[in-house]
Specification:
Mean pLDDT: 96
Oligomer: single chain
Distance between the termini: 42 Å
Radius of gyration: 18 Å
Strand content: 15-25%
Number of helices: 7
Strand order of the largest sheet: 3-2-1-4-5-6-7
Low-confidence stretches: none
Structural class: alpha/beta
Helix content: 25-40%
């Protein structure tokens, strides 16, 4: 069967790493972004690799974005076999000056982390035009454990509570969908990542290293392995699982 993966949020830190890897491995990768110019740049960077990449502009903060995405796949005769729910929105991680999160921002983060993956997964699974067999959701260690105040220099005042709460809901959505889609032979799993280098300063990385059994943050290249495993037939017996890829952070 031809392997075609829909990977949302392809122009972010995780997305670019994953798109380039799977295209190099011979996959057809369909990916989304809010920014056409960033999509074009990503596609150019994948030229000459074994597989191919198709970019679709989609802003999941807009009503009806998932429906439009599914319609665009249909009109282009694209058949999706695998799905990685990876789209993010930094704006929904905003925190007020007093450390609280506004209800509107909280709901936007929940929508992006839980409702959008649910809508896309169900839309693909219910369509006879697609051959969905495997779904991987991108979770976080903060969906399983609360943040450690020792990591932050502001006593969690800038740490967005909506992020961990929404990721926790995504982890349970993974289990629910694994049960509900099992009859269609669709596996649904999740990877709960620890902190990844790329957006933090050296002081933060040093504090992180002292709190993690691995002694460091994850490197971007380490994003690939857990997702590739869960998308492959090597994980055919794994379903409804939240795989911790956090360097041991959540074990103590």
């Amino acid at each position: 069967m031809n392997k075609t993966v829909l990977l949302t949020g392809g122009t972010g830190l995780f997305g670019q790493t994953l798109v380039k890897h799977f295209v190099a491995s011979g996959w057809v990768v369909v990916t989304t972004s809010r920014d056409q110019s960033r999509l074009d740049q990503l596609i150019r960077s994948c030229d000459g690799r074994k597989g191919s990449v198709i970019g679709i502009v989609a802003d999941f903060s807009h009503k009806g974005a998932v429906v439009r995405l599914l319609e665009e796949l249909r009109s282009a005769d694209i058949v999706i076999s695998h799905l990685v729910n990876n789209a993010r929105s930094i704006s929904s991680l905003a925190v007020e000056s007093d450390g609280t999160t506004s209800p509107a921002v909280f709901l936007r983060e929940f929508e992006m982390d839980v409702l959008i993956p649910y809508e896309i997964t169900m839309g693909l699974s219910k369509s006879a035009e697609h051959s969905l067999s495997c779904v991987v959701n991108i979770g976080s260690m903060y969906g399983e454990v609360a943040p450690n105040p020792a990591l932050y220099d502001d006593n969690l005042e800038k740490s967005p509570i909506q992020y961990g709460v929404s990721k926790s809901a995504l982890h349970h959505l993974t289990r629910e969908l694994a049960v509900r889609l099992a009859a269609k032979n669709i596996r649904v799993n999740c990877v709960a990542f620890g902190g990844v280098e790329g957006r933090t300063d050296q002081s933060f990385r040093d504090r992180y290293g002292k709190l993690a059994p691995s002694g460091r943050m994850l490197k971007s290249i380490e994003i690939i392995g857990p997702i590739e495993f869960l998308l492959s037939t090597a994980s055919s017996s794994v379903n409804g699982h939240v795989l911790m890829a956090d360097g041991g952070w959540s074990i103590w």
